[in-house]
Design a protein that fits this description.
Elements (H helix, E strand, L loop, with lengths): L7 E12 L38 H13 L3 E2 L2 E2 L2 E4 L9 E4 L6 E2 L2 E5 L5 E13 L3 E3 L8 E3 L6 E7 L6 H18 L11 E11 L9 E6 L2 H20 L7 E6 L4 E7 L9 E2 L6 E2 L2 H10 L4 H12 L3 H8 L2 H11 L4 H18 L11 H12 L5 H14 L5 H8 L7 H14 L1 H8 L6 H11 L6 H13 L2
Parallel strand pairs: 13-14
Antiparallel strand pairs: 1-11, 1-12, 2-6, 3-17, 4-5, 4-16, 6-8, 7-8, 8-11, 9-10, 12-13, 14-15
The structure holds adenosine-5'-diphosphate and magnesium ion.
Length: 484
């Protein structure tokens, strides 16, 4: 059904804040960690005591450059910090150190895939370095607001896309791809509950077929992919209804209320000049060396979108499986190492099925099995070639490998007596014997108690200690009972 709002199309631009995993803050000596006692991670520099001077973190600059290299940005060999002024209690200096005129990275492209596998590209405006602010806590004291400066000065990258995203789903997939990318590069832990990566969404709508951008509304601090999609959906609808009712859209900042499923106005958007940006006179410019850039480029790992493309096109992995396998960089590499031995499709099944299930049972946070990728590849190879019954490999060999990861597959196969799969003559002989010993049950089966099949399957499986393929066992049981 066509709706009136269908005459509009949305335009979305994202600002993604990425907290960098560095040992110390952006400009000061202290470290930082989520969930510490208030103001544990605080130095005189961060508290803005007079006479202190900032001391830029080179690793944060390195991480900015690495992300820029990964998305094909123009990397500024010389960039600069600017002061962005605003007054807020959790910003002791009275300005935020950020980059305005000379950011580390300009332009670039995020390549990613929608849930159905469609390839998309979103062009970037810039990626710049800045410091995070502290937190004001309003709900712990009856009279006063409290300030926790643990997060103040923590290094962030702000990635700003161009206004080119065409749907809520595309926005969520883009945000998700950025999270996977920064985790893969090892520059951010991607923990969304702790706010390590969060997103502001800018949304406007325009009549379908027109060029000029409408007035945008910014929704702040979305820390989940579904919140992002829901908030953008709501906002598109809200704006369309307003325009159709003859109202104008006010440029403003809103927040998403997940409980009420609505966006709410926070404040009118400050225009850029309100911040009175100017170059930080306390700081020298930031320099990147050509040799370092070349080395980081050479050391760049396989990127998630490249892996996604390789896996789905060469091994027929479904998009949903590829997204899951990509979530963790270590696991993605492990999977790729297993798949490189030749059975990519099977490798995905094993990783997402039995391996995942056994990992969950272990008392460990590890996303990787305790044995080399080559061993899993060997196990899979033996199943594919028919040397091992799938059931035995899954139920006996794989758990044994988790128990004794240092053993080779050959050793375990010999030890467990999994040498060869039970041939159907072996199964038939054993079944014949079982039928002779249970002639009453055979008779009752033949009189119509068909659910006795399970009884015989159980006996026969037990005899082969799980080494026989349940499919074959079922087939032999049925055939012999029927052909009596
Ligand atoms: P600011 O720094 O004031 O937030 P920017 O010009 O840097 O403003 O834009 C911030 C974000 O808003 C970018 O992601 C950009 O793509 C997006 N944006 C800008 N104009 C529009 C618009 N008319 N509709 C949707 N998004 C927009
Ligand atoms: Mg903004």
């Amino acid at each position: 059904m066509a709706r009136e709002s269908d005459q509009f199309e949305p335009v979305i631009g994202l600002e993604i804040h990425i907290q960098l995993q560095t040992a110390r803050k952006l400009l000061s000596p202290e470290g930082f960690a989520f969930g510490a006692a208030p103001n544990k991670w605080l130095s005189a520099v961060t508290a803005a005591h007079p006479g202190t001077l900032p001391f830029p973190n080179q690793v944060a600059l390195e991480y900015a450059a690495k992300l820029g290299l990964a998305v094909g940005s123009d990397i500024a060999r010389v960039s600069r910090f600017d002061r962005k002024h605003y007054f807020y209690p959790d910003l002791p200096k009275g300005y935020q150190t950020t980059q305005d005129a000379l950011p580390v990275c300009k332009e670039g492209v995020i390549t990613f895939f929608l849930p159905d596998g469609t390839r998309k590209e979103v062009h970037l405006d810039r990626i710049h370095l800045e410091e995070d602010a502290g937190k004001s806590i309003h709900d712990q004291d009856a009279y006063d607001s409290l300030i926790d400066l643990n997060r103040a000065g923590v290094p962030l990258l702000e990635m700003v896309t161009k206004p080119v995203i065409g749907s809520p789903e595309e926005a969520a997939a883009c945000f998700s791809a950025v999270r996977t990318l920064v985790r893969r590069l090892g520059i951010c832990d991607g923990n969304m509950e702790e706010g390590s990566i969060r997103c502001d969404a800018n949304i406007s709508i325009r009549p379908v077929g027109t060029e000029r951008l409408g007035t945008r509304v910014e929704i702040k601090n979305l820390n989940s992919f579904s919140f992002l999609a829901q908030a953008v959906h709501f906002e598109i609808d809200r704006q369309a209804k307003a325009l159709l009712a003859g109202e104008t859209i006010v440029q403003e900042t809103r927040s998403w209320d997940p409980a009420g499923q609505v966006t709410r106005s926070l404040r009118d958007k400050e225009s850029a000049e309100d911040y009175r940006y100017f170059p930080d006179p306390d700081q020298r410019s930031l320099h990147l060396q050509e040799a370092d850039l070349l080395r980081w480029m050479a050391e760049m790992p396989s990127l998630p979108h490249q892996q996604f493309e390789r896996w789905t096109s060469t091994w027929g992995i479904a998009p949903a499986e590829a997204f899951t396998l990509l979530e963790d960089a270590e696991r993605a590499d492990y999977f790729e190492a297993v798949a490189a031995f030749g059975n990519g499709r099977e490798a995905a099944n094993w990783m997402l099925g039995p391996v995942q299930a056994l990992l969950r049972q272990q008392d460990t946070d590890s996303v990787l099995p305790p044995f080399a990728a080559e061993k899993l590849a060997k196990l899979i190879g033996k199943v594919v070639s028919g040397e091992l019954v799938h059931h035995a490999a899954k139920e006996i060999l794989l758990p044994a490998l988790f128990q004794a990861p240092e053993k080779t597959i050959a050793e375990l196969i010999a030890f467990l007596g999994l040498g060869q799969s039970s041939s159907s003559t072996e199964l038939e002989t054993a079944m014949q014997l079982i039928m002779d010993q249970n002639s009453d049950e055979v008779k009752r089966y033949r009189q119509g108690k068909k659910n006795l099949t399970g009884f015989f399957v159980g006996l026969l499986m037990r005899q082969f200690g799980g080494k026989a393929d349940p499919k074959d066992v079922n087939e032999v049981v049925r055939r012999l009972l029927e052909n009596g």
